[in-house]
Design brief:
Structural class: alpha/beta
Order of helices and strands: HEHEHEHEHEHEHEEEHHEEEHEH
Strand order of the largest sheet: 1-2-3-4-5-6-7-13
CATH architecture: Alpha-Beta Barrel
Shape: globular
CATH class: Alpha Beta
Distance between the termini: 7 Å
Number of helices: 11
Number of strands: 13
Oligomer: single chain
Length: 296
């Protein structure tokens, strides 16, 4: 295993098989996650993503897989419902009854205003990292400042099942630079099935519409170069690069276009202080394409 790859992608993929375009049933998604946890690539696997309203359904399907051994805890990231008080109650009840075998240690909350952040922070169960999906509007710097003041994290939606669900490159770069300037770690979700930017079908149906999809390697490396001070035009070039061969990895370096590299410490920092993970409804697809690139 190349050291730069291991550092870049450890715990990077939160499994969201319940969500489009996969849209699996709970038993299917749970079985998949259990298999991924026991695969050679389990080191890349992050949390199981589940809506708060389906926590009871999750435990019905996963009960036989969950061990009481805290070393094999199933970590969950819960998508909050519109009623945050109900979400927090469900999370508290779940953790009370099912730790250490399974634990909700991450929440994903959609908000629109700084006051909503402040209210949610005050009620969030202790010991849980909350990621706030704010959108990419003109008020995002204000919201990022509130996240920084309250020690919270951000979330960006990087795609969907239609072409218009994918944010522009400059919007993604603006989001990342704003988060880094405010010392706000973040995660991404949707549309990042492929390592490198590409034009592909947006769903798994035979007649699926096609569109340009952001690559997760583009996003991770762009975040690293943003942390080292590169300006938006350079960062946008990284995000829009569709040539797989320009991304090179060895024991100590992640390199783009031969002349620009991130060392192990810089890769560690982009994961610690920048992008924490990305949600994907497929784990097999990213793994297979990384193997094809010779990275695994």
């Amino acid at each position: 295993m190349k050291g730069s790859v291991k550092t870049l992608l450890t715990d990077a993929i939160d499994y969201a098989g319940l969500f489009p375009p996969a849209g699996l049933s709970m038993p299917e998604a749970v079985i998949n996650y259990a298999m991924y946890r026991n695969s050679n690539f389990a080191w890349m696997l992050g949390r199981f993503v589940v809506p708060a309203a389906r926590l009871d359904e999750f435990i019905e399907s996963a009960g036989d897989f969950i061990s009481a051994d805290p070393e094999s805890v199933w970590r969950l990231s819960v998508i909050a419902g519109d009623d945050l008080d109900d979400t927090f109650r469900r999370v508290d009840d779940f953790n009370l009854h099912y730790r250490p075998g399974a634990a909700v240690d991450s929440l994903e909350i959609r908000i629109h205003t700084a006051s909503e952040i402040a209210n949610a922070v005050g009620a969030t169960p202790s010991g849980i990292a909350a990621y706030y999906e704010t959108g990419l509007g003109e008020n995002f710097p204000e919201l990022a400042a509130e996240l920084a003041l309250t020690g919270q994290r951000a979330k960006i939606r990087t795609g969907g099942v239609t072409a218009d669900a994918f944010p522009r490159t400059d919007e993604v770069v603006r989001f990342v630079r704003t988060c880094l300037a405010a010392n706000v770690p973040f995660k991404a979700t949707a549309g990042l099935h492929h390592p490198v930017r590409c034009f592909r079908p947006l769903t798994y149906e035979n007649d699926a519409p096609k569109g340009t999809m952001h690559g997760f390697l583009n996003l991770f490396l762009m975040t690293g170069f943003a942390r080292t001070g590169f300006r938006p035009p350079f960062l946008e070039d990284i995000m829009e690069d569709e040539f797989e061969e320009v991304f090179q990895f060895d024991k100590q370096l992640a390199t783009w276009r031969e002349d620009y590299s991130l060392n192990i410490r810089e890769i560690q920092n982009l994961r610690k202080f920048g992008i924490q993970s990305f949600g994907s409804c497929s784990f097999d697809e990213p793994v297979a394409e990384l193997q094809k690139l010779g990275m695994l």
